[in-house]
Amino acid sequence: MPRIPQTDLSHLASEIKRWGAELGFQQVGITDADIHSHAEKLKAWLAKGFHGDMAYMREREGLRENPSELVPETARVISFRMDYFPDEADTAERLKQPEQAYVSRYALGRDYHKLIRKRLSTIAERLREAGGEHCRAFVDSAPVLERGFAEKAGLGWIGKNSMVINPKAGSWFFLGEIYTDLPLPIDPPQEAFHCGSCTACLDDCPTDAIVAPFQVDARRCISYLTIELHGAIPEDLRPLMGNRIFGCDDCQLVCPWNKFSEATPEVDFSPRHQLDQTDLLTLFAWTEKDFDLKTQGSPIRRIGYARWLRNIAVALGNAPHNRDIILALEEKQGTAGELVDEHIQWALNQQRARASASPVS
Question: Where is tRNA bound in this sequence (predicted)?
Answer without folding.
Answer: 289
